[in-house]
Amino acid sequence: MTAFADEFLDRQARHWKPRTLESNARIVRKDILPAFGNLTVDAITFEQVRDWFAAMSDRPGIANRAMPVLSMMMRMAGLWEYRAHNSNPCRYTKRYRATPVDRFLTADEMARLGSALDANETRWPEAVTAIRILALTGCRRSEVLDLRWRNVGEDTLNLEDSKSGPRGRMSPRRPARASWTGFCFPQHAECRGEWSLTNCWRTACADAGLGRLRLHNLRNTAASQAVMADKNLPQV
Question: How many whole angstroms separate alpha carbon 133 and alpha carbon 179?
């Protein structure tokens, strides 16, 4: 499995975005190979997968992320003739029930967050601007951090590589900069500056008294605000 993991990651890399490759490689290294690394690919059984998954019951989130990766490894092993075709031992393992973590910020919380971002702008100017855009547009983190100046219109962000395909997203009105090149956030584009963004976000949340909040909650909040502003559901 250790040798197969290297081949699997190498052959699948072209199908994944950089963040997905980084995440899946980390899961393979930390969660899958310690349990299966010394086994041959064709020797892994349903019972072994079941026991491995059950051993992570105290970490259901990690288990739920690791299982699909192992399942894909086993599926590709069948296609590449390293084990019997259609013999995926992960097939019947059900994921742990996820606890909903969606949260929508109130107007007061958004105001406090805005003040906290203002106070930290000198320390983290690029990260603060990225967080503001996330809050105002409802974009995903990668869509903002990998944004290029050629994609910034007067009132629309033209996303070339969003999760659901190319699309436009309304943005705060700014002058068009189609003649500019490069990333809008060069310190954070393509998986760079992760700690800078994380530290800025956690500090702002602490200063605003918001507790442990996910950046993704800004996406939920933007959608909620759009609905309350009578935007139509297809647009939201």
Answer: 21
